[in-house]
Design a protein that fits this description.
globular
Amino acid sequence: EVELNASGGGLVQPGESLRLSCAASGFTFSENWMYWVRQAPGKGLEYISSISSGGGITGYAESVKGRFTSSRDNAKNMMYLQMNTLKAEDTAVYYCARDKLGATRGQGTQVTVSP
């Protein structure tokens, strides 16, 4: 059974940082591109970031480029999202997924950015 569990969310103030983690199991993690997507209150899923199977290639949505960084540890079946300079508009539930649209997303983690 495929499982993707995001964690590390919380309540932070604008300008602060958070690091999200994603634990993967049930498939060959090291052979898959992986993605971060998010869903803000009342909105649809939004692609945030992608990372190649080996971790050498990353991509970001314009809304987070320069502030967020994806990484992965294939030995641990883990993926990470370092989020810096957080803004109120980053408030959302964050998910890791095996596809860019988030159809394969697992359990998410809430990130709230508020003064």
